Amino acid sequence: MRDKAIVFEAGEGKALVARGSTMFFKATRASTNGAFSFMERTLPPGGRKPPPHIHTNCEEAFYVLDGEIEFFIGDDTVVGRPGSFVLVPGGVSHTFGNAAPAASRLLIIHAPAMDAYFEELQALWSGQVPPSREDETALMKRHGMEPGTS
């Protein structure tokens, strides 16, 4: 039973790292009964973007805090700057990456929660050599994502 509020400051939470990106989960499956996960994420300049994908069982929302994030949504490309909000419904192909010359930060919500995927993503990226796109795609499929086009 959840009976206490959770408070995290900037840069606090459950820390995970993958694709050179640092993620601080403020809310996880465990703290929301699976309803959603919420993270503060820092993307390095020139970092590897997630493969284009479609969520078959989840909605994803982004809110840009700092820098510029380039979103590839279906056939459209949008550059989000501080204050920009992007909602990607399930079934819509998308990916995103840092479009700025310095680190960019954003907030990301997945409903229902997807923190388990990011835990496995960190493990996949923990080796000496970045994983192949095929390995990333296989992980994504295990968590309700299908290859997309963007």
Descriptive notes:
By secondary structure, this protein is of the alpha+beta class. Helices cover 16% and strands 40% of the residues. The protein starts with 13 loop residues before the first strand and ends with a strand. The mean pLDDT is 93.
What are the key terms here?
11 strands; single chain; 150 residues; alpha+beta; 3-stranded antiparallel beta sheet
Order of helices and strands: EEHEEEEEEEEHHE
Task: Show unreliable segments.
Answer: none
Name the average pLDDT.
93
Number of strands: 11
Straight-line N-to-C gap: 41 Å
The structure class reads alpha+beta
The rounded Rg comes to 15 Å
> Largest beta sheet: what is the strand line-up?
1-2-3-10-5-8
Residue fraction in strands:
35-45%
Helices, strands, pairings?
Elements: E1 14-18, E2 21-27, H1 29-32, E3 37-43, E4 53-55, E5 59-66, E6 69-73, E7 76-80, E8 85-88, E9 94-98, E10 104-111, H2 115-124, H3 133-142, E11 145-147
Antiparallel strand pairs: 1-2, 2-3, 3-10, 4-11, 5-8, 5-10, 6-7, 6-9
Short description:
The chain has 150 residues and is α+β, with helices and mostly antiparallel strands.
